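Sequence, please.
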């Protein structure tokens, strides 16, 4: 995968340059890769819109990075800076391209652009290198561990989720709602079921932990899969699902979904099941 190629490149550079503790400071990293033969600079400007995130421009003589300081979330800003450093190290220094502008519109085509995926992977590996992140938790993909890594590494919950899910090869997914309405989901390679893009029910809202006032949970609830996913695929039926939801600011609700082998059942004829599920969602 392109993301893992980027992460490995970042981790290799960190080791070569002697970075051995968290958090990784992006300015210190830039100073470490910059020299007289190839100077690299970073500047922060307050652009009016947060639609523009960052830019990396350069040639064989050096490179410059510009970051929008008006990105409202400081941890997202930090990840954006690391992303642009990825473009410098993996693409500008290598001569594959000289100009990258990253905004919300470019991120919409993220999966179509291998260079953007490499830069995102680089940012993950730079801010959350495997050898420094693994000792922080017990390896379980839960909100308590995600929050802990987020605090140590100065990265967003979503970025940590992606990184931890890949490191642990776990069948997990993240679903994001705002004010009960479905916004998007964050897929992982090991989660095999399709996410339902439905509004949150009263029961789902009640199960949320308000982390503005409570600790981030380290456990999951057992729920009916049909409330979250299409519970069948390729002759496999998902009989149970584990869910853990947290309430953040501005009405955002992040939900982790997971399952294990005990939740799976092989079935041969799913025609009737498909009809039942279609009727179920049609009633909602």
């Amino acid at each position: 995968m392109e993301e893992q190629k980027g992460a490995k490149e970042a981790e290799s550079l960190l080791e070569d340059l002697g970075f051995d503790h968290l958090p990784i400071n992006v300015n210190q990293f830039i100073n470490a890769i910059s020299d007289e033969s190839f100077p690299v600079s970073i500047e922060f400007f307050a652009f009016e819109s947060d639609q523009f995130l960052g830019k990396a421009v350069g040639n064989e003589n050096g490179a410059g990075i510009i970051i929008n300081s008006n990105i409202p979330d400081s941890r997202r800003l930090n990840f954006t800076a690391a992303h642009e450093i990825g473009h410098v190290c993996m693409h500008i220094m290598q001569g594959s391209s000289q100009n990258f502008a990253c905004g919300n519109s470019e991120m919409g085509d993220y999966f179509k652009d291998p260079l953007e995926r490499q830069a995102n992977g680089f940012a993950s590996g730079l801010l959350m290198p495997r050898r420094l992140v693994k000792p922080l938790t017990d390896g379980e993909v839960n909100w308590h561990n995600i929050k802990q890594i987020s605090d140590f590494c100065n990265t967003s919950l979503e970025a940590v989720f992606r990184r931890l899910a890949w490191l642990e090869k776990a069948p997990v997914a993240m679903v994001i709602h705002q004010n009960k309405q479905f916004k998007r989901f964050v897929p992982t390679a090991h989660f095999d079921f399709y996410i339902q893009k439905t509004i949150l029910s009263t029961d789902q809202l009640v199960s949320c932990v308000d982390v503005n006032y409570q600790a981030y949970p380290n456990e999951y609830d057992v729920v009916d899969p049909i409330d979250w996913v299409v519970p069948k695929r390729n002759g496999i039926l998902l009989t149970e699902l584990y869910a853990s939801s947290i309430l953040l600011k501005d009405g955002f609700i992040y939900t982790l979904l997971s399952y294990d082998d005990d939740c799976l059942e092989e079935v041969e004829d799913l025609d009737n099941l498909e009809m039942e599920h279609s009727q179920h969602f049609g009633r909602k």
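The radius of gyration is 21 Å.
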